[in-house]
Amino acid sequence: MAFISPSSQVPKDAVVMTEHEAAEYVWDLVYKWKDLSDVWALRYGSVALAGINGISGVLINKHYRRKLKLGTFGHFSSVIPVSVMPAMLTLLFHRYLISTDMMLMKGEQCPVCYEMRSATTQVVLGITYPMLLAPTSALMLANRYNTYRVPHLQEGPKVLFKFLRTITKPLTGTLTTLTLVQVVASSIITYFEMKNSIILRNKLIAIEQKLSAEEDL
């Protein structure tokens, strides 16, 4: 299926749909397709990437909580924004900004462009997002429950940033590994999604041609 903008010339026998209706149609087709080998990446790729970012959030959150000796204090309130939210956002962003565009053939079909967009989304939501929230959450909880002596804002941002740099330094190796895993995983998943999309499109064209031939007989 190709998405055609309103300004494009629409064939006489075409079924006119909005972009939202077309997206619903192709995803319904993917989940009802009998041969799983044709659509496995489209069905489960975004879920796998969401899981990777969820684990990334857990590891980052765990590091700061352990450094600030938080134990079980505020555990649930920090897990949701740092681990659960990145996973959910990864699922939604990848599925609707990458996979759906790919299947609707919006814009240029550039595999490298899709892989770059996927990797950027993955790293932003799996590394940048948790790295902003995890230390902030841990500092607030440590100050609230007095589990660790943390610098106050009155001491100046320089003191606070120095403290954060000190407790973040041991996490550098883990962050590098997580980033590499996310880039590689997102590139592989996106590649197979593109492959699934092409296979699905070719099989639909073959079915359409077969039905057209039978009607002509």
Instruction: Give me the secondary-structure category.
Output: mainly alpha
Radius of gyration: 23 Å
Fraction in beta strands: under 5%
Number of strands: 0
For the record, give the distance between the C-alpha atoms at the N and C termini, rounded to a whole number: 26 Å
Provide the low-confidence segments as ranges: 1-7
Global mean pLDDT: 89
| Number of helices, counting only DSSP H or I runs of 4 residues or more | 6
In short:
Helix content is 77%, strand content 0%. The protein has 217 residues and is mainly alpha-helical.
What features would you describe in this structure?
This protein has 217 residues and is mainly alpha-helical. It has one domain (40-198). Helices cover 77% and strands 0% of the residues. The protein contains 6 helices and no strands. It has helices at 19-32, 36-67, 75-104, 111-145, 157-168, 172-216. The longest helix has 45 residues, at 172-216. The radius of gyration is 23 Å and the shape is elongated. The two termini are 26 Å apart. Mean pLDDT is 89; it is low at 1-7.
How would you summarize the topology of this molecule?
Blueprint: H1 19-32, H2 36-67, H3 75-104, H4 111-145, H5 157-168, H6 172-216
